[in-house]
Design the sequence.
């Protein structure tokens, strides 16, 4: 093939990647702005004739009775978004504190059994969530102290922190190993305590890795489905991923409302991924 | 005089390091022990005990019986076959498409940053949302797939895509691949970046065309990335759940092992058999996890 042929092929491939990546999102947006009649028409209308926010209105304000197999209630969806944001923010906060400390300890401090601790933490990454989630239900229902943690945000925060801290520790550990030790050593020689050197020198050195890990854990918690599906029952703790599946009707679904829920649920992770995409791609490609 | 003081200072620093080391890992260790290791042990005990009175059995230790039961259970077997299909289809699509995406985006061009940003979007979205976004494509009455195929005269009348056996698995796999392909593409992109340009310039002097360069240079040098992508893809596909739940629920024709675990445990309330099947799946996952670690080690050494 001629060089021009290859160039044309490449342009087509680039366009295909963009269409493949954005296509379903655009269909979702278009559906959310359509009416159910347009969607159900044969053949279906893929672009709304008069784009409107009726589906968003129904989703957030509640449908009086049935809207083609999908029932919504005022305040329910907003509450689930709030729960998801709370879970992502609070879990990520604890994951970052614990994993930064652990990564520094096993990566820098030469303490006894440090290697064994790292092996144990990394080893638990192989434990699939689904083997523990069934028993987690029992552990959270009857915790050693306090009332049942089923259907509470605290319970979910604990579970997400436990399941994601090992991964975060591993990602930050690889960064600690690559960081030059000289700044910290200089501070120690100047009489700085180890703790002070960690807070003042090492944590700022790790900041780019911490930002990438924060983004990755927030995306993971926001997208988690199986754990909250099994450990929540009411709007007290139900996140948006679980709430969305309740808009899928058993026999027929109101596509515009479902799509509106999907679009609203994808905005936060999409913005986060776009804002931090260089850091995320660097961390994923570097350590996966 | 300064010598001993220095030594005692050194000792204090060493002790400080020991104490700080443990203080810093104790929160993580406690969390992991209480919320991962204890439930895992608890789950294993459950899998070797009988289901109890609810299932008309005496409670107690039954050894490997629950494991034998689920291996011989026709529905679980069917779920295992489905899972193999999910893994094989997903991984082969991800490898082929991932390499093509990486090659396309490897060289610098105007707008590359935009395309890379757009590329990772599907990975960032919850898989439940992916399922929602794709749902209208497979709608039995007037979905996009039927619409396009009718227009192209490939089919004569609308087809119920998610109701037919293997076909349904294929469509759900596509939704799964949509979310995983960005990750696989990035792995290959990093692999391509590690191949020095001189290798290519030397070969083009020798008169090798793009296709020859690909099969003789790129592919062999990408082997480590292929190994990583293969294991990552397998680990993600072997426990497929979210996409199936949204698109087809617990329907028998698309049920994966994890969906069968869910159904056994939480719909039929049979914890004993549910956990046994979960541990079987975990064993399979662990094997691929070890292979993953080995593949990683080979690339870094």
Sequence:
């Amino acid at each position: 093939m001629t060089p021009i042929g290859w160039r044309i092929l490449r342009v087509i491939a680039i366009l295909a990647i963009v269409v493949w990546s954005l296509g379903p999102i655009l269909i979702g947006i278009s559906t959310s702005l359509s009416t159910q009649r347009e969607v159900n028409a044969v053949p279906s209308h893929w672009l709304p004739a008069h784009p409107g926010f009726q589906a968003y209105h129904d989703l957030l304000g509640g449908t009086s009775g049935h809207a083609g197999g999908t029932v919504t209630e005022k305040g329910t969806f907003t509450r689930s978004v709030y729960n998801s944001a709370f879970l992502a923010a609070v879990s990520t906060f604890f994951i970052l504190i614990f994993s930064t400390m652990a990564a520094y300890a096993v990566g820098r401090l030469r303490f006894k059994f440090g290697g064994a601790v790292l092996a144990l933490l990394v080893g638990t990454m192989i434990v699939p969530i689904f083997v523990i989630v069934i028993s987690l239900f029992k552990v959270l229902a009857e915790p050693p102290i306090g009332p049942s943690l089923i259907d509470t945000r605290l319970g979910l925060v604990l579970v997400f922190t436990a399941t994601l801290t090992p991964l975060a520790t591993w990602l930050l550990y690889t960064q600690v190993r690559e960081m030059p030790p000289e700044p910290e050593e200089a501070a120690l020689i100047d009489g700085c305590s180890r703790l002070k050197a960690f807070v003042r020198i090492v944590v700022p050195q790790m900041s780019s890795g911490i930002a990438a890990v924060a983004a990755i854990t927030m995306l993971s918690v926001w997208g988690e489905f199986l754990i909250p599906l099994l450990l929540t029952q009411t709007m007290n703790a139900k996140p948006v991923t679980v709430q969305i599946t309740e808009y899928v009707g058993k026999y027929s679904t109101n596509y515009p409302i479902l799509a509106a829920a999907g679009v609203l649920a994808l905005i936060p992770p999409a913005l986060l991924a776009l804002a931090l995409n260089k850091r995320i791609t660097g961390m994923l490609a570097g350590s996966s | 005089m300064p010598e001993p003081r220095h030594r005692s200072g050194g000792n204090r620093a060493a002790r400080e390091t020991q104490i700080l080391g443990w203080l810093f890992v104790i929160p993580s260790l406690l969390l992991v022990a209480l919320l991962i290791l204890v439930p895992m042990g608890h789950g294993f005990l459950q899998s070797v005990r009988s289901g109890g009175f609810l299932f008309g059995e005496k409670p107690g230790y039954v050894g490997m019986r629950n494991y034998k039961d689920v291996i011989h259970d026709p529905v679980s077997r069917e779920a295992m076959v489905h899972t193999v299909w999910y893994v094989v289809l997903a991984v082969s699509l991800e490898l082929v498409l991932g390499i093509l995406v990486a090659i396309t985006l490897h060289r610098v061009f105007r707008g590359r940053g935009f395309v890379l940003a757009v590329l990772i979007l599907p990975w960032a979205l919850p898989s439940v949302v992916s399922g929602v976004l794709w749902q209208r494509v497979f709608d039995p009455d007037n979905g996009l797939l039927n619409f396009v195929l009718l227009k192209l005269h490939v089919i004569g009348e609308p087809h119920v895509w998610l109701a037919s056996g293997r076909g349904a698995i294929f469509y759900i796999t596509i939704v799964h691949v949509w979310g995983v392909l960005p990750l696989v593409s990035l792995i290959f992109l990093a692999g391509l970046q590690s191949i020095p340009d001189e290798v290519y310039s030397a070969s083009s002097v020798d008169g090798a065309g793009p296709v020859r360069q690909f099969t003789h240079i790129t592919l062999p040098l990408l082997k480590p990335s292929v190994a990583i992508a293969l294991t990552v893809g397998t680990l993600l596909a072997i426990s497929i759940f979210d996409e199936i739940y949204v698109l087809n629920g617990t329907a028998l024709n698309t049920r994966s092992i994890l969906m069968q675990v869910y159904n056994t445990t939480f719909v039929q309330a049979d914890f004993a058999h549910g956990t046994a099947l979960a541990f079987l799946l975990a064993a399979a996952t662990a094997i691929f996890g070890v292979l993953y670690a080995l593949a990683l080690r080979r690339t870094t050494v």
